[in-house]
Amino acid sequence: MRPDLDAAPDQSTDRKLTAPLGGAVKFILIVAAALLAVVLIFAVFGQIGLFGLGSGRACAGARTNGIAVTAAAGPLAHLKPGATSGGGQILLCASHPTTAQRLLVSLTQVPEIALYLAIVLLLAQLLRGIRTAGPFAVTVARRLRFLGWFVLAGSLVVAVGQSVAQSAFASTMVTGRVPAVSNAVNAGIAVLFVPLLIACGLLTLARVIRVGARMSDDLAGTV
Amino acid sequence: MAAAEPGPEHAIDIHLDELLAARGMTLTQLSEQVGVTIVNLSILKNGRAKAIRFSTLTRLCEALGCQPGDLLSWRKGD
Q1: Which residues contact A67 (CB under 8 A, 6 or more apart)?
Q2: Confidence (pTM)
Q3: pLDDT of residue B16
Q4: Would you kindly state where each structural domain of chain A is located, as residue ranges?
Q5: d(CA A22, CA A44)
Q6: What are the beta bridge partners of residue A93?
Q7: Do the chains contact at B48 and A6, CB–CB below 8 Å?
Q8: What gap in Å lies between CA B69 and CA B15, rounded to an integer?
Q9: φ and ψ at A176, to 5 degrees?
Q10: Are A187 and A139 in contact (CB under 8 A)?
């Protein structure tokens, strides 16, 4: 049994401890659930194409790297003299997509949303752990650590995976060769910095919480 | 009466049982006098406490009319 403390406040039941993140996470989960429900209903039964679903067109972005762009003036019309335009990304749409194309379009969009949703769910789990076990608990440190690695690995896997799906979809739309490998490497490098910084922060915080948990444990045994 | 069994990290015996018995006091009475919960006094009595505050020690000594050395002793290892 964990010894109780005469002087220490009972933080385990304090919901204010996890504010404002707790409220934000709850709000995001409610909005996400509502949006997903609405979007899926429209995508399945409506005329729009979303995540590769629905009866509409199936569209996905594609890097122009290695794909020939034939427009002489670039992607934008009515440019003023001396101005040029260019874009690293174009939108490719299949008017009558096959099942495979729909699946590829889904794979260019769904993983990112799933990753964000998973991160929010992990955050909710972390906050629940803080509320039940207190802020300085080994469980909290473990969950923070997992979240850090999940953000880093998840972001990389999703970026590379979505890029591969984009390239695969693009290769069904153009006759030329799509440089899938270099696109995937570029996507991975482009997305790396922010998740790496977040992961470093979370892993450091996990270490701090672990030390705090040890100190809290010592304090809990003090009479 | 045997002293409380020490925890694995220390070799300090707590003689709260003997002092209470000698004074005819119960743990509940002591708890009321020193303002420490019975749960925490039990933890101390059973040697499961990791540390004791000087303030707690002071109040225990006041209530029991003893010196810290009467309450605590170091058990020499084998």
Answers
A1: A90, A170, A174, A176, A178
A2: 0.75
A3: 94
A4: 11-222
A5: 33
A6: A59
A7: no
A8: 10
A9: -80, 175
A10: no
> Of A51, A61, A49, A39, nearest to A95 (Cα)?
A49
**Residues of B with Cβ-Cβ distance to A5 under 8 angstroms:** 40
Stated as kind and residue range, the H or E segment containing A104 is helix A99-133
Phi and psi, residue B39, nearest 5°: -60, -50
The tokens describing A133, both together, are 């076990």
Residue A213 has pLDDT above 70, yes or no: yes
User: Which tokens is A169 given?
Assistant: 């979809």
Dmax (CA) of chain B: 38
From chain B residues 6-65, the ones with a CB under 8 A of any chain A CB are 35-37, 39-41, 43-44, 48-53, 56
Alpha-carbon separation of residue A137 from A145, A216, B64 (angstroms): 13, 8, 36
Give how far B6 is from chain A: nearest CA, Å: 13
CA distance B42 to chain A (A): 10
Other C-beta atoms closer than 10 Å to the C-beta of A132 total: 12
Record: contact B43-A6, CB cut-off 8 A: no
**Separation of alpha carbons A203 and A148, rounded Å:** 6
Contact assessment for residue A98 and residue A130, using Cβ atoms and an 8 Å cutoff:
no
**CA of A223: how far to CAs of A141, B9, B47, B55, B57, in Å?**
26, 16, 11, 10, 9
Residue B18 tokens, joined: 């003997």
- Residue pLDDT, tens place only, A69-103: 555 545 667 778 878 776 677 888 888 889 899 89
